[in-house]
Specification:
It contains 22 helices and 23 strands. By secondary structure, it is an alpha+beta fold. It is elongated and about 155 Å long. The termini are far apart.
C-alpha cells in the first residue's frame, strides 16, 4: 500500500489563512450578486419604460395600412378614375442574393436598364432602397416568383383613368404618393384620400414580421365623387374640338357645355391634352386647362350683353334704329370700323351683322357705372365659384378709370378679359330667363336658383337676336343644326402681344344655346390661332358648336323643335373685330 498523505504535515495546507481574506471574498461575491440584483430590478421595474422604448425603436415598427382612394364617377356612374393594386418593389442591398440570370429577368420585368438596377443594388451600406414604385399586379407576382433574397414588396395603389386624354383636364391626376396634383383629384383630395390605418408589429433584422403588438387601426376608405360631367358628351366634345384644331392648323382649343336648368358642367374639354396615367413626356401646353385658366378679350361675344343692358335700362328697343354708316367712327384719336358699311340697322341688326359702330353707339346711351354693374353681376372680373382649381378672375377695371374710348371698345369686347368658362357662365342669364345661375362640377338634380340680371322679356329678346346671328345673313350661320333651333354669337379678336396686338394671330370663338325658346344647354367654343386662313369665329368655332349641340341634345333626350332642315351655308358673314 502506498503511504497516506498527511495534510497536517503539508506546509501549504498547514498555514493559517487570515480570516479577513475569506470574509472579503464572501463579501465581494455578495456585493456582485447585490449589484446584479439591483441592475435587474432597475431594468425590470424602475427603468422598464426606457428599455421598452429602446427595444421598440430597434425592432417595433408601425406599418401603414393604406386606404383605397375613392373613385371619380361621371353623372351616370361610369368610372373616370379608380385605384387598382400596384405593389412597390424595394430591397435591402446588403442582403440581396441573386444570380446574373435572376437580375437580368428582374430588370426586364421592371422595364429598367440592367445598369440602373445594378446601381440601386450596389450600395451595401443602404438598408432600404426603392427599386420601382407601383408596378402592375401580374408583374409583381412574376417578381415574387423569382425568389430573390433581400427583395420585398409593399402594398400600394395606382390610379387608372379609363377616359384617357378626353377627360384629363377634368379629372386631373395623382402623384406616386397618391396625392391629387391637378383637376378633381386635387380639388377633392381630402375626400378621395380617406384615412390610412396602422398596425404595430415586431420585425426581425430582415424586415419580416415576427408578431403583432397592440390594436390594429383599420383604414377609412376614400369617398367616391360623382361629377356632373357626362363622359359621352365629354368624349364627343373633345373629339370634335381635336378635329377642328387639327383642320384649322390651330395652336389649341377649348369647349364648355353647361346645363341651363341645373347649372351643371356637362363637358369641359381642351386640346392639346394628355393621358393622366402616362405622363412621362408631359408639357405645360398639354397640362393647361385653358377653358378656366386662359383669359382673352371676348370680342363680339360681348355685344349681346351690351344690347341686353341697354334694353334693361330702357335706352333702346329691339327695333330702335342705329346709324352705323359709313362703317367707321372716330373718337379719342382712334377709328373704330366695321367690315362693311351697314348703314342704318335696328338693334337686332347690330347683333345679326356684328357691327362695332352700332355696339359702341348703344353703349354711349349708358353710363360707365351702369355697364360696370352689369358686368360684375354677370361674373366678369371675379373668380368663378366652381369647385375646381386654377379658375382665374379675368380683368375688369373700375368704372371710374374708364375713358370714353374704353367704354366704347368694351361694348364690343375689347378692354376687358375673361375665360371661356366665364363667357359661357354669363350667357346663362339669357338662357335662364334673365337670371344668372351658379355652376357646379358635381352632379345635381335640383334646378339652380339664379340671381336676376335682366327681365325675362329682355332675355327672350336677346335670344331671338342670337338666333338671327346664327341664321342666314348672320355671322354664325355654320352654327345651325338639324332639328334644333340655335342662337349664338361668334367672335374674332387679334391676340395681344406685349402692349399691342399681333396682326396675324387670332382667337376665334362661338358662344350660344339651344333650343332657343326653352334653352337646355349652353356651348362655348374657342379656337386659338387658327392658321389655315379661316380664322373668323363663324368659320373656325361655329361648326364645332353645331356638332356638339346636336349630339348633346340627342343624348339628353331633348325633342327636336324644328321639323325642317335649316340652311347650312358654306361661307359666313365676316364679323367686325
Amino acid at each position: 500500500m502506498s503511504k497516506s498523505v498527511l495534510y497536517t504535515s503539508s506546509p501549504l495546507l498547514a498555514s493559517k489563512t487570515p480570516v479577513w481574506r475569506s470574509k472579503f471574498i464572501v463579501a465581494s461575491i455578495a456585493l456582485a450578486f447585490t449589484g446584479l440584483a439591483g441592475r435587474a430590478a432597475y431594468i425590470q421595474v424602475f427603468g422598464n419604460d426606457f428599455f421598452q422604448r429602446q427595444g421598440e425603436v430597434r425592432f417595433a415598427r408601425t406599418l401603414e395600412l393604406p386606404a383605397n382612394r375613392g373613385r371619380i364617377l361621371d353623372r351616370n356612374g361610369l368610372i373616370l378614375a379608380s385605384s387598382v393594386p400596384a405593389p412597390s418593389i424595394w430591397a435591402i442591398p446588403e442582403d440581396v442574393e441573386a444570380s446574373k440570370e435572376q437580375l437580368a429577368t428582374l430588370a426586364k420585368l421592371l422595364e429598367m436598364p440592367p445598369a440602373e438596377l445594378k446601381k440601386k443594388l450596389g450600395d451595401e451600406d443602404k438598408t432600404f432602397v426603392w427599386i420601382k414604385r407601383q408596378v402592375d399586379e401580374p408583374i409583381a407576382q412574376k417578381i415574387h416568383a423569382l425568389g430573390i433574397k433581400g427583395l420585398y414588396q409593399r402594398k400600394e395603389y395606382k390610379r387608372k383613368y379609363p377616359e384617357g386624354e378626353a377627360a384629363a383636364h377634368v379629372v386631373g391626376f395623382t402623384n406616386v404618393e397618391d396625392k391629387g396634383q391637378e383637376g378633381i383629384e386635387l380639388a377633392f383630395n381630402q375626400e378621395l384620400s380617406g384615412k390610412a390605418g396602422s398596425r404595430r408589429v415586431i420585425k426581425d433584422r430582415l424586415g419580416r414580421v415576427v408578431e403583432g403588438v397592440g390594436e390594429q387601426v383599420p383604414p377609412v376608405e376614400g369617398k367616391d365623387i360623382q361629377l356632373s360631367v357626362d363622359s359621352k358628351v365629354q368624349f364627343f366634345a373633345y373629339q370634335k374640338l381635336r378635329d377642328a384644331v387639327t383642320a384649322r392648323k390651330a395652336k389649341a382649343g377649348s369647349v364648355v357645355v353647361l346645363d341651363t336648368i341645373t347649372g351643371e358642367v356637362l363637358a369641359l374639354a381642351n386640346y392639346p391634352s394628355y393621358v393622366p396615367d402616362k405622363r412621362q413626356n408631359l408639357t405645360g401646353e398639354q397640362l393647361r386647362n385653358r377653358a378656366l385658366t386662359d383669359t382673352f378679350e371676348p370680342g363680339s361675344t360681348m355685344k349681346p350683353i351690351t344690347v341686353a343692358m341697354a334694353l334693361e335700362a330702357g335706352r333702346v328697343k329691339p327695333q330702335t334704329l342705329i346709324e352705323t354708316g359709313p362703317g367707321r367712327f372716330s373718337m379719342g384719336g382712334f377709328t373704330i370700323s366695321d367690315t362693311h358699311n351697314y348703314g342704318t340697322l335696328t338693334v337686332e341688326g347690330v347683333i345679326q351683322k356684328s357691327s362695332n359702330v352700332g355696339a359702341l353707339k348703344i353703349a354711349q346711351k349708358m353710363t360707365p357705372h351702369e355697364m360696370w354693374d352689369t358686368y360684375v353681376a354677370l361674373g366678369y372680373g371675379q373668380k368663378p365659384q366652381i369647385q375646381f382649381p386654377g379658375a382665374v378672375t379675368g380683368r375688369l377695371r373700375p368704372w371710374k378709370t374708364w375713358r370714353p374710348i374704353e367704354q366704347a371698345t368694351m361694348s364690343y369686347g375689347y378692354g376687358l378679359s375673361a375665360s371661356l368658362f366665364q363667357m359661357a357662365h354669363s350667357y346663362t342669364s339669357f338662357a335662364h330667363d334673365g337670371q344668372i345661375i351658379p355652376v357646379t362640377i358635381l352632379k345635381s338634380s335640383e334646378p339652380a336658383v339664379g340671381v336676376r340680371v335682366f327681365s325675362a322679356e329682355n332675355a327672350l329678346a336677346v335670344r331671338r337676336m342670337l338666333q338671327m346671328a346664327a341664321a342666314p345673313g348672320g355671322t354664325g350661320q355654320r352654327a345651325q343644326t338639324i332639328g334644333y333651333s340655335v342662337g349664338g354669337k361668334s367672335g374674332t379678336a387679334h391676340k395681344q402681344v406685349g402692349k399691342g396686338y399681333a396682326s396675324n394671330k387670332y382667337r376665334a370663338w362661338f358662344t350660344g344655346m339651344a333650343p332657343i325658346e326653352a334653352p337646355r344647354i349652353i356651348v362655348a367654343v374657342m379656337i386659338d390661332e387658327p392658321s389655315d386662313g379661316q380664322y373668323y369665329g363663324g368659320l373656325a368655332a361655329a361648326p364645332v358648336f353645331s356638332e356638339v349641340v346636336q349630339q348633346t341634345l340627342r343624348m339628353m333626350g331633348v325633342q327636336p323643335d324644328m321639323s325642317v332642315k335649316p340652311q347650312i351655308v358654306t361661307q359666313a358673314v365676316e364679323e367686325s373685330f
